[in-house]
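Dear colleagues,

As part of the handover before I leave the project, I'm documenting each prediction I ran so the next person doesn't have to rerun anything. This entry is a single chain, and its sequence is reproduced below.
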Amino acid sequence: MATALEDIPSVDIMTELLRRFKCSSKPDKRLILVGPPGSGKGTQSPIIKDDYCLCHLATGDMLRAAVAAKTPLGIKAKEAMEKGELVSDDLVVGIIDEAMKKQSCQKGFILEGFPRTVVQAQKLDEMLEKQGARIDKVLNFAIDDSILEERITGRWIHPSSGRTYHTKFAPSKVPGFDDVTGEPLIQRKDDTAEVLKSRLEAFHKQTEPVIDYYSRKGILSHLHAEKPAKEVSVEVQKALSS
């Protein structure tokens, strides 16, 4: 049920008005973040989203939302998933097309997790071209595989709160236990050297050609993703203001 305007606290209305005013002066941006797992895309995307008033389009989340909402494309995607098939590139591009029409995407979007192949990049370009739009910038989170292994295999999580620790970069006070509750920490099953190795192989084989594709278009910026998050944020700002 919609909330009546008079029931919303004045401070919330003012905050939203100020946000919209700030957003109105921001340039439109259509961005793609590309990089291997653990390269820091998930850390930077909320910062970019807030700075430029963009919507964040993560293909996995959008697919689940389309299936849950039973949109025509969501129904087709569900049928493919139930048969154990991959959802087709055309379907995913169609779901992105639908998501882009939302009010929150008026100033543009951040795409993460797509495109993973050159064919997907071409289909995305064709769809945007029909709308008179195009990708403005692709941020490549470049990082050495050996650094990723150290980052990912050292990651430990407190399951109930989502607090994360790292054996080297952010250790808990007592190894293996959460600082706040004292409960045991776990490692996600994806955060192992074996799983990372197969994910990196897929990234190098499928997605590195996508980096070349956007490089030839002159819209690619390389980031030194091995640096601390704050330094990477500075590089992002430079890349997006150029």
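The beta strands are 29-34, 55-58, 108-112, 137-142, 155-157, 164-166, 220-224. The two ends are 44 Å apart (CA to CA).

All the best with the project,
I.
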